[in-house]
Structures are given as C-alpha cells and as structure tokens.
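Regression test case RT-17, inverse folding.

Input:
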C-alpha cells in the first residue's frame, strides 16, 4: 500500500511538472526546461520509504526523466512546431562551388607588333573530351580600345565578359560627353587588366575561382590622358598577372611560345604578325586534341580601335613524314 501511494505521488509530480514544462515552451521560457522533478517531493518520499523502496523510486524516477527527455526531443507542442504544423520546414540552399571546368576552350595567343597588338584563338569549345561547340568565339571587345581573349571554362568567360561590358556601359553613361572618344571615359587596357586581376584574386580567396586564363590587349594610357604604348597582359584563375611582348595560354604556352620567341621582332608588320600567329595555331591544331583549325584573328590599333575577324579555317597538311610513318612499327594507319 505504501509503494502504491508513492507511485501515485510520483505520477502526480510528473504530470504537474510536465504541464509546467509545456507551458514554459509556449512562452519560450527555456530556463524551466531543465527542471525535472521537485526535489522536496522526492526527499519527502525517500524519508518515508524503506531502502528497497528508495531503490525502486530511483529507477522509476530515472525512467520518467527519460520519457520526458524523449518527448521534448521530438518537439512536443513548442511554438516552432506549431508554426510549421502541416508543412515542411524550409531548408537553406547549400553553398555550391565550381570544382572543375565543364565546357572549355583551349589556347589564346597574343603578340605585339609595330602598329598595335594582335590575338588569335580557335572557336572550339569542348565538353570534356568531345568537340561539342564549333563556333564559340573567345575574342571579345569590351570597349573601343580594349580586346580580351579567354581560355578555360566558357561560361565563366561569358560571365566575366558581361561584367566588363556592364562597367563600360556605366562609364559611358556617366561620362561628360556623349562621344567616348572625346571624353576618354573608357578604361584603357591596363586598367581592364588590373580590374580582372582583382576579380580573379577575389574569387580565388572565396574558393570559387573563375576557371579562365584571360589575355588583355590594347593600349596603355599616358598621364595626360592620351593613348600610350601597346599593352599585352595575362591574368590566370588565381589572380597571377603579368605583361609581355608575346603571351600564350593553355597548350600554347608549351607549343607556341618557342615559335614566337624564335621569330619575334619588335618591328613586325601586321602581315608578318598575322602569319606568325597562323603558324602557331596550325601547330596547335596538329598537336592539341582540343584545338581546331577554325580560328579568329583580332587586332587593336590606335587608328581603328578593335577589329575582330570572322571565323575562318586554316589550310593544313598531313603529308609530313611524322604524320605518314606508322607509329610503334604498326602496319596501316593505326586504326581498328
């Protein structure tokens, strides 16, 4: 009879405190959530109970505590549970990063010559190992004085191009004159190059780089605002930047630069510079599996500004002895 009364007393204490806990949840008084049972009630029960009864009370109290804990862990009747009753709680979108490029373009080659700066690039964009897009133009004018060429992830290149064109539009809208050539509001090639360097370095620090190597061509600006010397610079995806008389990205940095260094002169005429770039692009077509013989040539001059050719195909020949002789002493053309 004594044990039965003790159990009834514990039950009343349990439901009394459970009611207090639920009330505290609805009023967001979380400090009361840690209360379990009234120590006075338990001590009173212990003083009237035998040792065996005290042991049973401890076990029963522990089981009641576990029951309340699991009940509260499931949410109970808290305010948040009532807010989302019948609906799924919204989940924050995960942070996404570009872990590798998907649709890519290969080499861009640039060279200074007597009248300005000239760039060359093919129009192939590869989806992994597949030559998917045959007319992806990677030479773009961002303002009348500056030309850029991009290798790497094509979507990142488009995003960067949109950003540069938006800056150019803002400059023209805030200029003092309606005619850009009179006001000199456009950024010169060196300023665009520095801006791209800052963008690339910023994205690199966020562990979300733009997967591109960008070649910037144009003219620097003198202190008095006049057009200065030809400028040719490179920015890679981690913000490393430098300028030179000849620049190549991708496979071109291995296959085209040796040719440029051997044949380059500071006084090259436009025709000579074009022929030299075509020779480099032809070698890349022979040796680079991601290159195409469909190319574009673009130039920047003081007189005409930026001019970009339409895509055209290079004349190629596969009669070279290294292409004709079977490899690995195999008979036939090496096909299946």
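Golden output:
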């Amino acid at each position: 009879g004594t044990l039965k009364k003790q159990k009834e007393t514990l039950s009343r204490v349990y439901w009394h405190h459970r009611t207090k806990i639920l009330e505290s949840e609805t009023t967001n008084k979380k400090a009361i959530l840690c209360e379990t049972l009234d120590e006075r009630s338990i001590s009173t029960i212990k003083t009237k109970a035998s040792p065996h009864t005290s042991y049973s009370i401890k076990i029963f109290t522990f089981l009641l505590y576990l029951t309340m804990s699991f009940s509260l862990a499931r949410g109970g009747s808290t305010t948040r549970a009532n807010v989302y009753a019948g609906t799924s709680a919204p989940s924050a979108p995960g942070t996404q990063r570009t872990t590798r490029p998907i649709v890519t373009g290969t080499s861009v080659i640039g060279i200074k010559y007597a009248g300005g700066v000239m760039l060359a690039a093919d129009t192939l964009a590869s989806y992994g190992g597949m030559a998917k897009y045959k007319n992806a133009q990677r030479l773009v004018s961002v303002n009348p004085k500056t030309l850029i060429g991009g290798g790497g992830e094509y979507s990142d290149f488009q995003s960067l191009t949109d950003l540069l064109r938006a800056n150019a539009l803002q400059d023209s809208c805030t200029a003092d004159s309606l005619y850009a050539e009179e006001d000199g509001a456009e950024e010169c090639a060196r300023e665009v190059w520095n801006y791209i360097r800052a963008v690339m370095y910023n994205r690199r620090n966020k562990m979300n780089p733009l997967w591109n190597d960008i070649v910037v061509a144009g003219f620097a600006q003198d202190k008095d605002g006049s057009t200065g010397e030809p400028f040719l610079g490179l920015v890679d995806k981690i913000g490393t930047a430098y300028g030179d008389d000849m620049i190549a990205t991708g496979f071109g940095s291995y296959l085209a630069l040796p040719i440029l260094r051997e044949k380059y002169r500071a006084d090259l005429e436009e025709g000579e510079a074009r022929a030299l770039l075509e020779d480099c692009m032809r070698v890349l077509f022979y040796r680079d599996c991601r290159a195409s013989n469909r190319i574009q040539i673009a130039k920047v001059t003081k007189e005409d500004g930026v001019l970009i050719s339409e895509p055209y195909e290079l004349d190629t020949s596969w009669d070279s002895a290294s292409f004709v002789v079977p490899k690995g002493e195999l008979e036939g053309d090496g096909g299946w």
